[in-house]
Amino acid sequence: MRRAYTRRYRHGQQPLARRNTTRVRRAVSAPPHSTLQSNPSQLMKYWNGVQHNLNSDDEAIFQRTANVSTYGYMTVSGFQTVLSQYRAHDGREPLRVFYDLGSGLGVPNVVAAALVPTLQKSVGVELSSQRVRESNTVLNNLRAEHPDVASRVHFINGDILSTQWSYVDADMIWISSLCFTPELASKVADRLNKELRKGTHVFTSKALPELNHTYHNKFTAEMSWTSNSDVNHYIV
Ligand SMILES: C[S@@+](CC[C@H](N)C(=O)[O-])C[C@H]1O[C@@H](n2cnc3c(N)ncnc32)[C@H](O)[C@@H]1O
Questions:
Q1: Does 78 sit in the ligand 1 pocket, CB within 6 Å?
Q2: pLDDT in tens, 119-130
């Protein structure tokens, strides 16, 4: 609340009369509310029975491109930890655009849209066509009950290095990169160096020493395979 008011003032507006302040503050800081925000763990029911196996076409693609298909996901609690780090370190407000590079079954993308009402675009890029199909099934089921959340999530099938799309509008990026080869990690850093705007937050399980940055810290967050997986936080 305070931040929204302060920013309006800093950008040259006159201070608001005290009598009107409460009303204006409430209007500025009351984004559309998702019922999922109060109990985000209920989201996980949408992945019940969803498989992360690859089909044979996917297997051939991963083999040909020397990519690694290992699957695991960031839990709701893990995403909440990441989000609190974003907000604690002068994160761009409001958070509007989020990318998950290697989005698997789309858990972080959906959780982000449910927890961040200001998010306009939550995009997952995933090499496995089967996983993208499953992610879109989850999205369709979610749409029936939470259209406001589902409408802001998009899944793209392809390589995160493909130049058919760009990450230039990102405010926040998540890369579950533990299984990335050193070559892929290095190419991702190179790509992000060329595209990201100053101030973008990049969260990655593997350190990306080649990423140009003004801030770097490490913390732990919950993933499906452990309660305390390392996460590197960079601000470029
Ligand atoms: C460990 S999973 C993480 C899933 C999701 N990001 C999460 O945190 O819940 C990593 C995903 O990256 C995908 N992946 C690996 N290399 C990729 C590439 N070059 N382009 C797109 N996706 C890739 C894998 O198929 C896998 O689904």
A1: no
A2: 999 999 999 999
| Residue-wise DSSP of 164-225 | TS--TT-SEEEE--TT--HHHHHHHHHHHHHHPPTT-EEEESS--TTS--SEEEEEEEEETT
Tens-place pLDDT, residues 76-113:
999 999 999 999 987 777 899 999 999 999 999 999 99
Question: What distance in Å separates the CA atoms of residue 192 and residue 194, rounded to the nearest whole number?
Answer: 5
Torsion angle, CA of 79/66/157/219, rounded to 10 degrees?
10
Q: Is 224 in the pocket of ligand 1 (CB under 6 A)?
A: no
Is 194 part of a structural domain of the chain? yes
**How many residues are listed for the chain in this entry?**
236
Return the CATH number at 104.
Answer: 3.40.50.150
Q: Is the CB–ligand 1 distance for residue 128 below 6 Å?
A: yes
Residue 23 domain-assigned (yes or no): no
Q: Are 196 and 164 in contact (CB under 8 A)?
A: no
Query: What is the number of domains present in the chain?
Result: 1
Residue whose Cα lies nearest atom 18 of ligand 1: it is: 159
> For all residues of the chain together, what is the average pLDDT?
87
Any domain includes 96: yes
Residue 30 located in a structural domain = no
